[in-house]
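A reminder from the course coordinator: this example appears on the midterm review sheet, so study it carefully.

Given structure:
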């Protein structure tokens, strides 16, 4: 499994990369939304993890850009990973097109549970992993 993690904090990227490595997943890192969208244009992924608060383009805007694509990548599963905890944050993320929201610090079991739920749901709906 290949995962793109769009996150401006290097330590957060490293922690998640180590977690995904336990499961044998490969993680590609992007330190900004703009960089992540550029990587998505040229590489294939099974899932995206996106932080909300980044310099430049924020995560909500990045998710909207992904969902507006005219190709199969518009349907990639997206999990928001954020330290924000606003009352309606989860609903905002889901309305933008996220499949799930995890709050930092992310626990390995929470990450794997969310990934498994989304992949199982997509497989059951006849979804294709890009």
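Designed residues:
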């Amino acid at each position: 499994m290949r995962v793109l993690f769009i996150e401006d904090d290097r330590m957060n990227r490293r922690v998640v990369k180590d977690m995904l490595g336990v499961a044998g997943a490969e993680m590609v890192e992007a330190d900004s939304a703009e960089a992540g969208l550029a990587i998505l244009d040229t590489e294939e992924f099974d899932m995206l993890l996106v932080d909300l608060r980044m310099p430049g383009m924020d995560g909500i805007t990045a998710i909207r850009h992904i969902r507006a694509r005219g190709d199969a990548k518009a349907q990639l599963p997206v999990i928001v990973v954020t330290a924000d905890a606003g009352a309606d944050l989860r609903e905002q993320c889901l309305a933008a097109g996220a499949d799930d929201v995890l709050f930092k610090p992310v626990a390995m079991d929470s990450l794997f549970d969310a990934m498994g739920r989304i992949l199982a749901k997509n497989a059951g709906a006849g979804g294709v992993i890009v």
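Residues 83 and 105 are 7 Å apart (CA to CA). The first strand starts at residue 2 and ends at 6.
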